[in-house]
Amino acid sequence: MLLVYWISLAAYEQPSVQQSAENLVRMHEGWGSKASTPGTSLVLNESTRSGQIVKFTLIAAGVPTGQDYTLVSWPVTQKGPSEVLRGVTLDASGLAICAGTAGTCSANKPNDPIEVNLRPIPGEPVRLGLVSADGATKIFAKAVPVPLRGEDRGCRVEATLLTPGAELILIEGAGFASGSDVTMDSESEGERHGAKGKADADGHYESALLPYRAGAVKGTTKVRLEADKCAPSVSVQWGRRN
Q1: Rounded CA separation 219/101 (Å)
Q2: How many domains does the chain contain in total?
Q3: Which of 74, 124, 181, 207 has the fewest CB atoms within 10 Å of its CB?
Q4: pLDDT in tens, 104-136
């Protein structure tokens, strides 16, 4: 069962809020191979990075190339995915393109690769997918272009923002001993809290964090995962950005 880790706001302890947080985490985790058509895959290939702008191309495998697809996106600013571009096709290598022919999308030139331009903030996930026109084929993938990550003696902790102001953060740890005890300590603008859990058989640990401190609109939370051999930590800024 997913552990949703509360900081201090009493309103967050309402069952409906906890259930909403758990549902959002599960939706995020499912965006990938779990929700894709069996035997298919999608790779988000970072083509260029200039300053804060990151561009991605999409490369599909295991899907028919003679079909039209719709590009979908699920940014953290939305409750669910939405259409971005219709009439997408795939070339022989599986690269998503705009063919520029009847019924397909158009770009600067025929068979132009589709580039998705993004300006992600640290910890923000990119979630993209392709859905065939008949709905029979669906492929999804996600990436975090600017990860929030900490490492210590072979162990790692990473924080992923699931809402625009980091009201909900997914904490993931890796590299721990199989089934080992893991303590998660959190300090948010002077408030400290702790929770205990266990790594799974593969040494992974997961929790969800609601970091806001009562009475504050912005701040920083430091999360530390401590096990027998390591204690990686990561800091996350929360609060709506102007």
Answers
A1: 51
A2: 2
A3: 181
A4: 999 899 999 999 999 999 999 999 999 999 999
Residues 6 or more apart whose Cβ sits within 8 Å of residue 134: 67
Q: Say which residue, 163 or 214, is predicted with more confidence.
A: 163
* Model confidence pTM above 0.85: yes
- Domain endpoint, select from 95, 116, 143: 143
- CA–CA gap between residue 28 and residue 128 (Å, rounded): 12
β-strand partners of 148: 159
Given a cut of 50, whether residue 11 has pLDDT beyond it is no
- Amino acid identity of residue 225, one-letter, is L
What CATH number corresponds to the domain at position 234? 2.60.40.10
Which residues does 71 contact at the CB level (< 8 Å), separation at least 6? 58, 83, 84, 85, 86, 88, 96, 114, 116, 128, 129, 130
What's the domain range around 11?
A: 4-27+147-238
List all residues 6 or more positions away from 168 whose beta carbon is below 8 Å from its beta carbon.
Answer: 21, 24, 25, 161, 162, 208, 209, 210
- The answer to whether residues 171 and 132 belong to one domain is no
Q: Are 117 and 171 members of one domain?
A: no
More confident residue, 1 or 21: 21
